[in-house]
Every structure is written in structure tokens, then in C-alpha cells.
Amino acid sequence: MRYLDTHVDTITVLMNNGDELYGNNRHLDIRRLEAFEKSIVFFAVFFDGSKPEKRYNGLFAEFLGIMDFLESEIAKNNRIAGIARTKAELLTSKHKIIAVPAIEDGGILEGNLNNLHTAAKLGVRYITLTWNHINDIGEPSIINGKGLTGFGHEMLVEMDKLSVLADVSHLSEAGFWDVVKFGKPFIASHSNCKSICNHHRNLNDEQIRAIRDIRGFIGLNFAAYFLGDTSDESRSVGIDDFCRHLEHAAHIAGEDSIGIGSDFDGARMAAGLETVADMPKFYDTLTTRYGKTFADNVFYDNFIKRFQ
Fold it and tell me: Which residue among 70, 98, 225, 248 is the one 20 to 30 A from 232 at the CA level?
């Protein structure tokens, strides 16, 4: 089986904790990825926006430090792993494991388009426009915020020139519709369905249709609190809950618009979806329920077909 994950927070967590990418006790590592025929993982560089003193104080320098760490960890394992810095490299790399850099929270760019150009040269292929606080691009879903700022619109234009995708996970609904109006394909790298779990981070049916119509992509999330109501502590959120979101998103957006955006190392995962080691068994579950073609599409093929 092949595996493509549009969103993991692992690289930032590893650097902050002094762990290694080859083997660790987190949700994902190279050792466990070796079990797959091929894997593509989008490693999001992420900073905790709850620390105001770090929001716009040298964030881009910190981003560069984490990029150095990712490059060094991949270099240690270059017999099987490589970084894809362009779409062409993503599609043609012979490495068994392909790392793709991404940014979670465009505030990391510090309102500077030159920083965007630098990030694109380093291989960043998408930017999650906001996280859970207001930045100079827009406002987040957690406060049901306003739309994109003037700089946010400028950044979309420049991102399009650089073939860097916009990611609307975490973005306010008003900001979402601003991205739709821009008229270019975009992604929701780690979001689920609001009609099933009414969480501010999830997408309503109208948003899902808009992603379908613009030929975008949704990476569905394994985080328990985006899959089901966890207020009942006696009820475990698990694979069946994920499959409800999967079926609903496939029904609304089409089977070719969806895949996996696990959020590994960024949240508490649902039962049976706790680490990348659970993915072979989960693949078998999807194959049994929906057929091999559907499972292959969700696990890998849909994203590649969408953006090749």
C-alpha cells in the first residue's frame, strides 16, 4: 500500500523535544513509514499561537531553524527518504519516503512577501493561512472571524505565482469564501464535516461543495474532537466515526476530492487511528468496506491525480 498524508505536526514536535525522525515514540516516524510501498508526508512547521510573545517576534527565523532540522533528519536517512521541493519532484522522486514542507499559520511569514519567496524556494508547497488567532492574513474559525486582509489577498496572488497552495483549515468562513472568490484550487489539509460534528474547525456542506467545484482537496482528520462529540466520556471516538465523515465528504464532494490529513502529533487521535502504524490495518478496513480502488484513492491516488 501507498500512503499520503497532507498534514502532520511531527517535525516541530520532534525538534522541540530533541527526538529523531527515524525512530521515536510519537505518532509518526521513518521506521514505521518503511512498511509502506511509498509514502508522501506533508510536514507542517507550526508554532503555538497561545504564546503571544512568539507570534510575530522572529517567527520566520524559527521557521528556518525547523527547516534546517527537517533537512538534516532527512539527510540522515537519504537511502530511503528525500525532500520534494517542487511539484515535479513530488511526482517523480524515486525515494520510498518523500517529505514535503508546509507552513501552519501564515503569520510565520511576518507579513513579508520576500519570506514567502524564501519559503517556496525551500520547498513549502502549502500554507495554512491562519491558526487559532488573528494574523496579518486573516482571522480564524475559532472566533468566527472576518475575511482576508489586504495583505492576505496580496499573498494569494503571490502564492499562485509560486505554485504554493492555500490551505483553509483553521480559517474563518468569511476567509474561506474569499479564497473561493480568488478562483484557484486550494486545500483543507486537515478538516472534517460540520454536519456530522459541529466543531468550528469542520467544513459545512456548502464549503465542501465549493472545494469540489474548484477542484480542491480535503484531507480528513483523525483528531477525536473533530470526529464526534467527546463530551460523553463513556463513548470512544474511533474508525466508525471517521468513516461517517469519509462517506459524507465523498457524497458531497465526490470520491476524488478526499484523502487523509491525519494531524498526527497535533492532537488526540481517535481509537484505531492513533499512529501511522495503524494505517495498514485501517487500509484493510477501508478495502473491506468500500473496495480496493476507493481505499487506494483515499490513501494516496486522489491527491496525486488532483495536483499532477
Answer: 248
